[in-house]
């Protein structure tokens, strides 16, 4: 469990003050995969460095597993830090050490017995699928493999939290997917809380339960990924989730509005996305529907379908048809023409 209260971080640079974090409140549950997304400079890395206390917060509170992180002595802090695993964008591996030694490193620092380390490293190598690479050096591995080593190292000391700061930002889309699957696997198998810091919405959509959107040092919006995805409240959230912000081509739109009818955008969530509400609506209310745009996306384990349809028929019937969709949990918005 992570509890952040009114966290402020101000950097002093000579005469200048940089207000990187301006009062952050966040609550992250145990076992969650929690996403923090923001543009470059939003304060994401500052937040990470305050969380693991590599940086001293200017003010505010941080509690991890009920430990008041800011009040800990140096010794207690060293212990507490072991419970936070870090995964970095550029892997930060020891280039002159083998894969085996890279993963053993945090346990050696922790003075674990040799036999224990040997057993644990092999277990971790197996978990991340790199048993056959144990004697190689980082330069001999691909980016995805290097990040697997980074993840194995991060969980070596059985942390309760793993923080990934742009862990997939240097990887191609396919490798990103496999790394995210590995993180999800680890979350499920070991119950480790995972905090994903990224500037890429696809990463959030792929594995996170909840997301916080960081903008200029503040949380602009926070909630279930599906809620923020479907009903973004802020401009910044809309800009990240623009894939459902269906923009109709002017020509298509004008053509669609030729004659009678109403153009709506319907968002179908979960089971709603595969149920035949459109065909039922057509027969039930004696309307016609033509599909102008449509897509289905996966959000973690939830399916979200978006359809832009033109409904024609008697005005009353159209209104009843729309009401019918809404009663069946379809989110309906009228699409208005914007030139
Ligand atoms: N050590 C530092 N000293 C001074 N300013 C910093 C320092 N680290 C970050 N900043 C500033 O704080 C703001 C947030 O940066 P950062 O946390 O790195 O954002 P992000 O990770 O979202 O890109 C930026 O304006 C950045 O220039
Ligand atoms: Mg950063």
Helix-strand blueprint:
Blueprint: E1 2-13, E2 16-28, E3 33-38, H1 44-51, E4 59-64, E5 67-68, H2 74-82, E6 84-88, H3 99-109, H4 114-127, H5 143-155, E7 161-165, H6 173-190, E8 193-198, H7 201-207, E9 210-215, E10 218-224, H8 225-230, H9 235-240, H10 250-256, E11 262-269, H11 277-285, E12 288-299, E13 302-312, H12 315-327, E14 331-334
Parallel strand pairs: 3-8, 3-9, 6-7, 7-8
Antiparallel strand pairs: 1-2, 1-4, 4-5, 9-10, 11-13, 11-14, 12-13
The structure holds adenosine-5'-diphosphate and magnesium ion.
Magnesium ion is lined by residues 44-45.
Account of the 3D structure:
By secondary structure, this protein is an alpha/beta fold. It folds into two domains: 241 residues, P-loop containing nucleotide triphosphate hydrolases (Rossmann fold); 89 residues, Alpha-Beta Plaits. Helix content is 36%, strand content 30%. It is built from twelve helices and 14 strands. Strands 6-7-8-3-9-10 form a six-stranded mixed beta sheet, with helices on both faces. α6 links the parallel β7 and β8. α3 runs parallel beside α5 and α5 packs parallel to α6. The site of adenosine-5'-diphosphate (ADP) has 12 residues, from β1, β2 and α1. The site of adenosine-5'-diphosphate has 12 residues, from β1, β2 and α1.
């Amino acid at each position: 469990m992570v509890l952040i209260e009114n966290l402020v971080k101000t950097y002093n640079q000579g005469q200048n003050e940089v207000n990187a974090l301006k009062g952050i409140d966040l609550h992250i549950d145990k076992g969650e995969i929690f996403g923090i997304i923001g543009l470059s400079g939003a304060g994401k890395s500052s937040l990470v460095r305050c969380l693991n206390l590599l940086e001293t917060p200017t003010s505010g509170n941080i509690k991890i597993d009920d430990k008041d992180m800011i009040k800990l002595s140096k010794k207690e802090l060293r212990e507490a830090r072991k419970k936070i695993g870090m995964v970095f964008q550029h892997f930060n591996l020891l280039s002159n050490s083998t894969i085996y030694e890279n993963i053993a490193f945090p346990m050696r620092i922790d003075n674990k017995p040799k036999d224990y380390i040997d057993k644990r490293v092999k277990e971790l190598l197996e978990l991340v699928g790199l048993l056959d690479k144990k004697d190689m050096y980082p330069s001999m591995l691909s980016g995805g493999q290097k990040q697997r080593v980074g993840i194995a190292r991060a969980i070596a000391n059985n942390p309760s939290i793993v923080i990934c700061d742009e862990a997939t930002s240097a990887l191609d889309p396919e490798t990103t997917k496999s790394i995210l699957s590995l993180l999800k696997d680890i979350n499920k198998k070991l119950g480790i809380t995972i905090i994903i810091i990224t500037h890429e919405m696809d990463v959030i959509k792929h594995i996170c339960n909840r997301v916080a959107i960081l903008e200029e040092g503040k949380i602009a919006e926070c909630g279930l990924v599906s809620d923020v995805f479907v009903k973004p409240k802020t401009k910044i959230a809309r800009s990240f989730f623009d894939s459902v912000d269906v923009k109709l081509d002017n020509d298509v739109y004008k053509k669609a509005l030729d004659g009678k009818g109403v153009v709506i955008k319907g968002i179908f969530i979960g089971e709603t996305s595969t149920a035949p509400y459109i065909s039922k609506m057509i027969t039930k209310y004696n309307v016609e529907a033509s599909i102008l745009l449509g897509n289905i996306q996966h959000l973690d384990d939830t399916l979200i379908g978006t359809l832009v349809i033109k409904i024609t028929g008697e005005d009353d019937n159209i209104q009843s048809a729309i009401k019918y969709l809404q009663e069946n949990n379809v989110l309906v918005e009228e699409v208005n023409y914007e030139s």
